[in-house]
Amino acid sequence: MAARRLPPLNALRAFEAAARRRSISRAAEELGVTHGAVSHQIRTLEAFVGTDLLERAGNRFKLTLAGEQLLAPLSSGFDLLAAAVISLDRPSVRGDVTVSAPPALTCLWLVKTVGDLLKQYPDLRLHLRPSNSPKEVIASDVDLCIRYGDGIWPGRRSEQLTDTDLFPVCRPDLLASGDIRELADTPLLCAANGHEWDLWLATVPQGSILTGGRHYLGNHLAMIEAAAGGLGLAMGDNVTCQRYLESGVLVRPFAESVRAPASFFLIDAGDHERRPAVTAVRQWILESFHRKTFLAA
């Protein structure tokens, strides 16, 4: 069999980290090298494949079509490599791992899917903390955090899990006739400050029919559960609401969605490699989002 023609591994790692994190600086921090070294490795890869992978504009970049096509299989390949290494050391995947995640993500996704992980690693003891507290991002007794934000947490490594799309959701009986005008006076349910409603209403012209008052439920979980209980229209998203949508508990009265300015990120101190149990949980979370298991019924 002829030898595979592959680019240098360091070039692949540099591109994958930069593309995944949408930042050369964050990639350099993750890989423990300089900004210039990452840029050099990416240019080496571009020379190897014979096309640009990044469209550069000063200190910013976006992926070209070729870059987008390469990122997904490359990330999956690194996931498989990491999983293979973990599997070699599976007997040592034991002990306690503490994961802090927003209450909505914990209750509406994490606890519904984590059974597969615990079956794979029966000696793992998982401690879940439903929380939005910024203090837990740097807490010494928290191994992994999932947070909704801009990806910048000083002193911590962060990795984007998914983009977030926003759209209204409600219980089906509030839209019994199928006419969205039926919702004109329906209360708008907000998690905290209502900024996501402001964004959606400013972007979607059809939203102008919604003139109902606002209720502030304190957090995203309470807002979604209130919508499921028929209290009004909530501003849902493609992660925390998807299971309720697929089961029919909630419906989307409007087809239009708006990309949120923030995303879900997985955050850690960057030293989990010394603890196989933390590595296993981290890898499971990343693979789950890459496979989009939160979209499963």
TrEMBL record:
<dbReference type="InterPro" id="IPR036390">
    <property type="entry name" value="WH_DNA-bd_sf"/>
</dbReference>
<dbReference type="GO" id="GO:0003700">
    <property type="term" value="F:DNA-binding transcription factor activity"/>
</dbReference>
<dbReference type="InterPro" id="IPR000847">
    <property type="entry name" value="LysR_HTH_N"/>
</dbReference>
<feature type="domain" description="HTH lysR-type">
    <location>
        <begin position="7"/>
        <end position="64"/>
    </location>
</feature>
<dbReference type="GO" id="GO:0006351">
    <property type="term" value="P:DNA-templated transcription"/>
</dbReference>
<keyword id="KW-0804">Transcription</keyword>
<dbReference type="InterPro" id="IPR058163">
    <property type="entry name" value="LysR-type_TF_proteobact-type"/>
</dbReference>
<dbReference type="InterPro" id="IPR005119">
    <property type="entry name" value="LysR_subst-bd"/>
</dbReference>
<dbReference type="Pfam" id="PF03466">
    <property type="entry name" value="LysR_substrate"/>
</dbReference>
<keyword id="KW-0805">Transcription regulation</keyword>
<comment type="similarity">
    <text>Belongs to the LysR transcriptional regulatory family.</text>
</comment>
<dbReference type="InterPro" id="IPR036388">
    <property type="entry name" value="WH-like_DNA-bd_sf"/>
</dbReference>
<dbReference type="Pfam" id="PF00126">
    <property type="entry name" value="HTH_1"/>
</dbReference>
<protein>
    <submittedName>
        <fullName>LysR family transcriptional regulator</fullName>
    </submittedName>
</protein>
<keyword id="KW-0238">DNA-binding</keyword>
<dbReference type="GO" id="GO:0043565">
    <property type="term" value="F:sequence-specific DNA binding"/>
</dbReference>
